[in-house]
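Hey team,

Filing this mostly as a record. A colleague (T.K.) asked me to run one chain through the structure pipeline before their review meeting, and I want the input and output archived in the tracker in case anyone asks later how it was produced. No errors, nothing strange. Just documentation.

Input sequence:
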Amino acid sequence: MDEVQTGILWLTDPQRDFLAHLLTLTIQQQLKPERSYERIAEALEDIAADGLVSMRADDENVWVLVCGESIVHAARDWLEWMTPRWVASQGN
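Output structure:
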């Protein structure tokens, strides 16, 4: 999501990764039949390269949009609190 890196500068790389993870999980749970996490992540990379994945933010929230539709919403304080816990869980 290269476009994202220039759009919301306060986000850390781990926060961006966590939001991408949440985006992938959210889409995966909605697909019937279910697709693999890897397959969805690859598809998202492709559409992000076409500029169809973006982020928006205000003082309290951040949204991840796909084709202009909000898919993931996170409060900034929750994102700051949850990201280190998610990163720590990745080592397990």
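Quick notes for T.K.: Residues 13-30 form the longest helix (18 residues). The chain has one domain: 2-89.
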